[in-house]
Amino acid sequence: MFGDPKEVLGNDHDCKASAWNWWQGLVNFERRQPSFEELKLQRISDILGLLENPHLKLKCLHVAGTKGKGSVCAFLDSILRHGNQGVGLFTSPHLETINERFTVNGIPISTDDLLSRIWEVSKAAKTIGGEPPTFFEVATAAAFLHFRNSKIDWGILETGLGGRLDSTNVCVPIGCAITSISLDHTKQLGDTVEKIAGEKAGILKKGIPAVSGVREHGPREVIRRHAREVEAPLWELDNEIRIINQKLIEDTKNPGLWKFDLITPKSFHRDLIPNLPGKHQIDNAALAIGLLDQLNISPEELAIKSGVRLVQWPCRIQTINEKPWVILDTAHNVASIKALTESIFFSRPHGTTHLVFAASQDKDTQGMLAHLADFFDKIYLTRYLGGLRATPPENLYESVPKKHQAIAKIYENPIKCLESILENTSPLDLVCITGSVFLAGELKPWLNKRFSTGVNC
User: Fold this and answer.
1) What is the reported pTM?
2) Geometric angle at alpha carbon 436, from 92 and 156, rounded to 5°
3) What are the structural domains, with CATH classification, of the chain?
């Protein structure tokens, strides 16, 4: 999943290959859980200082939240690019190759350019000395360098973990967005939605406009209070940003798409159709448009509609085959799992419903499986094979409600699991794969090959 620099360099001893190996050896919080004390901004600030502060030369939009932040970033990217703007997008984690995290105008960074940026960052980090940076801090610094060198108009940054102490928070944004808040990463961010909201609200800056999709009373009040403290003009869903005329589109090839109109204090947008399934994507598209409206960034209406309608954000309730209906998804907390089931069970499939599930050890597997088990006829518990954080399938079995354990099976290998399922499905069946970004990333190439004549994930 992390590529091989030797494919470009062809030399194990090249300085860039050494920098790559150094990077891969750093502490990576995607492979293990960080402690709160390990989250800090000083290291990346020092590194960027030696690199002439590329992050201060960019017009950035900064997005945090528990659920939907990646989709909001994707909508912002798509709308701005359809308005003929040059856009850099930094997201995490990736699905197949790490290059996907750093895109400019929709194109992932080349491996050669990525190696060069990592080499630059490594030289700065080693010059500073002391405690080495984390894997994600280096990635963030590399993104800022890539965007500066690409001479983009806009940089869009998705936080990796939290907000206040996330390495992306060294930016000085033009605008900020906070998506919905729910319980996730509780050991690092807090054990209540209010505490988590406080960490997410840490991206708000003095006088910088912001939008919020937080509806629950407690965390909403936390966001409002932080916005008042830093004098950040705040627009909220259901208040300044109002969604009306929501309607499910009857489309058998792309099930789960919705149409809506949007009213903000500055404009009225009609007949918007997000190209991502699920009613929750209306909120994400609305936040992106609302932020651009509040900032007086005004692409033509055609660019807004096209950006929303043609947005690409792979493996978010993504149909990759129609008969049987095979869905690949990255939901990894209870809130996103509920959004998944609401999106695909608006009409009950006529055949057998199969769930393929894997998750990381820090996730609420009990909560996710308690919800999912009510919707599926058969449950297959597996694991992603890369990384150290995968929950053993036998532990997942213990998280399945007792009354549903009879329909659950354990598979150590996710490919063999899918092979077994697909050999015995009918065209009316549903196969839903979810629980982890890492599982989706590992299965995506195999599924694309398996259904090479179907819809590409």
Assistant:
1) 0.91
2) 20
3) 14-26+33-309 (3.40.1190.10), 318-450 (3.90.190.20)
